[in-house]
Design goal:
The structure holds two protein chains of two kinds.
Chain A: E1 4-7, E2 10-14, E3 19-25, E4 32-38, E5 45-51, E6 56-59, E7 62-67, E8 72-77, E9 86-93, E10 100-102, E11 106-111
Parallel strand pairs in A: 2-11
Antiparallel strand pairs in A: 1-3, 3-8, 4-5, 4-9, 6-7, 7-8, 9-10, 9-11
Chain B: E1 4-7, E2 10-13, E3 19-25, E4 31-37, E5 43-51, E6 54-57, E7 64-66, E8 76-78, E9 87-94, E10 103-104, E11 108-112
The chains are: A mainly beta, B mainly beta.
Amino acid sequence: GENVEQHPSTLSVQEGDSAVIKCTYSDSASNYFPWYKQELGKRPQLIIDIRSNVGEKKDQRIAVTLNKTAKHFSLHITETQPEDSAVYFCAASMRYGNKLVFGAGTILRVKS
Amino acid sequence: DGGITQSPKYLFRKEGQNVTLSCEQNLNHDAMYWYRQDPGQGLRLIYYSQIVNDFQKGDIAEGYSVSREKKESFPLTVTSAQKNPTAFYLCASSRPGQGPEQFFGPGTRLTVL
């Protein structure tokens, strides 16, 4: 079945620096890759997603890049702020069943 | 998102008891999902339903049961057969015909005493 690996598991950056989180997936049929942000005790919130027909997508300070050949995608956050501190999850769609497989998550800490 | 509600927010259960977690959505979404979240782990799929009166097991269905009698509702029962039920449970929904995005409810934290 589909497997999604996410790195790093924790990431500390100084306020204003950039943060990059990487995920790899195993199923070449995956065609949808969302990123979720989860604050402590709250629900995951979709922050950006990308489909397999594009290589990059930006939304203000966040961007996602996709390399279909290598089967990996990355989340980029620029000019980090303390409110960016949270757990970030990547996911990949499965071949059948409208399902997502999630990575294990990255704890991002932005130090002010 | 705001159209998905879960209750209760916190739930305490004694060993050997069955409990049912509620999930309701008013988004007119066809598909609904239940995930379990443990510390340091991602979201693991318990059950999902793509249409009323139909549902399928996910990766960790043992010890759980669901029903989908109405489009708006997808309750999850945690049975006494679930060996380690203490976790954060998240419900999600999507409208496959309009895209694969899944939107989550606020979650229920279940603690076994």
